Amino acid sequence: MPKFNIRQYQPNDYAEVCRIHDVSRKEELTIGGAEKYFIPLETAPYKDDFFSCKIYVAYDADSILGFVAVHLQELDYIYVDPIHQNKGIGYALATTALRYMSRPVSLDVFAENTKAKKLYKKLGFKCQEVRYQQWDLNDPKKYSDEKMILN
């Protein structure tokens, strides 16, 4: 098990957080069948919202391994560099953030993302509802959105 620490985001983490977001977001969208909607964090319309979150990063001696970004009652983003997944980093990041969050806490996840949902269930989240929504009027496909809640 690799050794890592968790701390609050610092401005010099920016490039690594963007890199991890981009590689992990592509993976997440592919799982949900929505890879054509990928936008790098640097140019994403939600960039300002992302950086208004409280962000914690997991790091080792060499690099940032992953991050979690949250608002008061919403776990908004949790991404671990794919080469460091399945090492307890996502669980540690989420547990750290949840200590400071008001209940209930919600999150949204693709219904098809079984790996992420396994982590969320381990943390105590339960499915509240599953919705299928059309993201773009020119795209007839409906994409899943599972809302999970932790009381």
TrEMBL record:
The GO terms this record gives for MF are:
acyltransferase activity, transferring groups other than amino-acyl groups
Q: Which organism is it from?
A: Lactobacillus amylolyticus DSM 11664
Keyword Hydrolase in record: no
Q: Which InterPro entries match?
A: Acyl_CoA_acyltransferase (IPR016181), GNAT_dom (IPR000182), MshD_Acetyltransferase (IPR050276)
Residue ranges of every copy of the N-acetyltransferase domain listed in the record = 4-150
User: Is Transferase among the key words of this record?
Assistant: yes
The cross-references to CDD domains, in alphabetical order and at most eight, read: NAT_SF (cd04301)
SUPFAM superfamilies assigned: Acyl-CoA N-acyltransferases (Nat)
Transmembrane segment boundaries: none
Q: Which protein, by its recorded name, is this? A: Acetyltransferase, GNAT family
